[in-house]
Amino acid sequence: MRPSYAAILFDVDGTLVDSRAATERTWRTWAQSYGLDPAHVLRICHGRRTEDTVAALLPPPERTRAMERLDAQEIRDLTDIVPMPGAQRLLGRLRDFPWALVTSCTAPLLRARMSAAHIPLPDVVVTADDVRDGKPDPTGYLLAADALGVRAADCLVIEDAPAGIEAGLRAGATVLAITTTHDASDLRAAHVIAPSLDWVTVAHGPDGVVVGLRQPFEPRRTR
């Protein structure tokens, strides 16, 4: 990793907020209502915009209504929404430092989940509503960096999913991945991998925020 960063850009679901149980309940119910294989739907929905996942599964005439149903169901189901381990501690240390959110959620869903997890929203937020193309397209991260007045190349992106990692890399940022929703073998493209935000340390340096790990982490290799 670099000695310091101008800003930190966070993904939300699976990174700052643990929404996996609620997300999988909603998508499983939705998939069954359309006669789709829930296991297949769950394999492709994490880390992507609802719009992009639905487009991969349904013909155009059915997509708008399907997305409306999903959004409504996800906003209603906030059971089990909690902060990811280490999220509140890490954000508390960044109180006087630039950071932003770049999420595949819609704006209403983001507000609902962040409120349920008791995590405040930063000044800069980029949601699915703000971009034409979702992750792995880098636009979200580029927009967030620009809104903070810094270069994406000077930012650290923290992600949990392959699509988000690719988005951060394509934006030119350094990417730290956490193994909260995917095996480390799926996250190898990231510059650094850690088990969770509990492992991540931040401190103010003369040229930005200094980010490190509490101890070295060597992901177990899978055959």
Automatic annotation (TrEMBL):
InterPro entries: HAD-like_sf, HAD-like_SPP, HAD-SF_hydro_IA, HAD_sf, PGP-like_dom2. It holds the Pfam family Hydrolase. Keywords: Hydrolase. One of its GO terms (molecular function) is sugar-phosphatase activity. Signal peptide: none annotated. Coiled coil: none annotated. NCBIfam families: HAD-SF-IA-v1 (TIGR01549), HAD-SF-IA-v3 (TIGR01509). This is HAD-IA family hydrolase. It comes from Nocardia arthritidis.
